[in-house]
Amino acid sequence: MKNVFIIRYGDVTLKGKNKKSFIDRLVEHIKKRLHSYPITYHHAHNRLYLTIQPGDYTAIKKDLQTVPGIHSFSLAQQTTLEENAILAAANDEIASYPKPLSFKVKTKRADKNFPIPSMVFSRKIAGHLLINHPDLTVDVHHPDCLLEIEIRPDKALIFSRKIAALGGFPSGTLGRGYLLLSGGIDSPVAGFLAMKQGIEIEAYHFHSTPLTSIESVQKVIDISKQLARFSPKHQLTLHLISFTEMHQAILNTVPEPYHITIMRRMMLRFLETAAERNHVPGIITGESVGQVASQTLESMKVINAVTNRPILRPLTTYDKQQIIELARTIDTYSIAIRPFEDCCSIYVPKHPTTDPRVFYALRYERLFDYQSLLKTMTQSMHTLIIKPESQLDLPRLGFTVEEALKGGNHDYQRGQ
Ligand code: ATP
Ligand code: MG
Question: Which pairing describes strands 145-151 and 176-180: parallel, antiparallel, or unpaired?
């Protein structure tokens, strides 16, 4: 019976003096994620061993694949140190593969008191397996199945499959960042990559309801539910800010080629103030060089000019297909392609500038009182704590975010 998960840490093990604190955080996150299962934990040799009751492990596997910092894991059978018990487990393991099959047995002795040397023991077990399974061949260089036997002081662990996990660093160990989250394909993936790399995020979404539909905000809520799965608290803080008045002011006063540039600068100005107030060092966006006309290096330079904070753009060098594949794996793609558009995809200028200048941007921004509009935006902010199981359904509750949250379930609201 398989009943031990062997968890391997990722880049955490490359850390120097503070490796222990990274590992402690990771173990804490794993325990939090699996708190509802009866499990005993044991940490040794840069690995975590989870002993669980025999049963269906599908849910645990899925949970482990959402914890940043885990590199891979294996489900092992635990036996006594008796040769017959180990051989029986090895037989089971081999029986689970289609044949013909090439294999290799590798024994590791964490306990050198075990009387048989590793190589000798591997050969012995392999010999038995060859007799028991007619379609087996040994291949010591590139086997289809690498059967591993780990000898510990009081037990043996037998396993062969390595299940890849997220890698990266435990959440929050590499700082905090604010994510500019749209309902599109890209920014959820950018947020996920930042989370995977150990950054604890909060999401900010600027909506223009009722100029744009409330369904576009629902997309962001549903995307946030998916992203929440990767946080140790299993929740994501989502700030919804009304961009409607700012949006209208930009459409009415700024020359069309600069619409997107100025909109982004206003979003970043807003985040800059919030980040300064809350001591959050980084900002994350889903921009990718060349993807749309406004996403050029020149354009990023003009957008960046309103903040000194590092702006992480994890997707800068990804092409669309790579981004879509990632979006599919984190289950945000099908939400992102729902047809509702947000403030930046509606009223898209026909000829956005690909080569904007800070000088012009500043000049256009003097045409309207953006400072007071930024203040209005702050007052309009609603903060929601989104969990994967959140049931918030805005389109049923109103046409604007304001309306919907007033009439709706206030459990999700944490105040202004
Ligand atoms: P996405 O798929 O993330 O919407 P995109 O390729 O459509 O990206 P743009 O619409 O130009 O690109 O947006 C670039 C980035 O600006 C987004 O990835 C996101 O980080 C941010 N952004 C755009 N619109 C909003 C919004 N309404 N609220 C918050 N952030 C936004
Ligand atoms: Mg977009």
Answer: unpaired
The least confident of 63-72, 205-214, 273-282 is: 205-214
For the CA of 287, the nearest ligand: 1
Type of residue found at 354: T
Report, in angstroms and rounded to the nearest whole number, the Rg of the chain calculated over CA atoms: 27
Residue nearest to ligand 1 atom 24, measured at CA: 182
Nearest-CA residue for ligand 1 atom 10 is 344
DSSP 209-222: TTTS-HHHHHHHHH
Pick the residue whose CA is nearest to atom 25 on ligand 1: 182
Instruction: Answer yes or no: are the C-beta atoms of 377 and 242 closer than 8 Å.
Output: yes
Cα(286) to centroid(ligand 1), Å? 6
Closest CA to 332 of 232, 181, 185: 185
CB-ligand 1 contact for 286 (6 Å cutoff): yes
Task: Kindly give the distance from the C-alpha atom of residue 194 to the centroid of ligand 1, in angstroms, as a whole number.
Answer: 16
Are 111 and 153 in contact by the 8 Å Cβ rule? The answer is yes
Q: Which domains does the chain have, with CATH numbers?
A: 2-164 (3.30.2130.30), 176-412 (3.40.50.620)
Cβ–ligand 1 distance for 64 under 6 Å, the answer no
pLDDT digits (tens, 9 = 90+) for 300-345: 999 999 999 999 999 999 999 999 999 999 999 999 999 876 655 5
The mean-pLDDT minimum among 109-113, 226-230, 244-248, 288-292 falls in 288-292
How many CB atoms are located within 10 Å of the residue 371 CB? Answer: 9
Candidates 180, 182, 324, 347: which one to mutate for ligand 1, based on the most atoms within 8 Å of Cβ?
182
Is the CB of residue 325 less than 8 Å from the CB of residue 331?
no
Distance 346 CA to ligand 2 centre (A): 9
Average pLDDT over the chain reads 91
Distance 316 CA to ligand 1 centre (A): 13
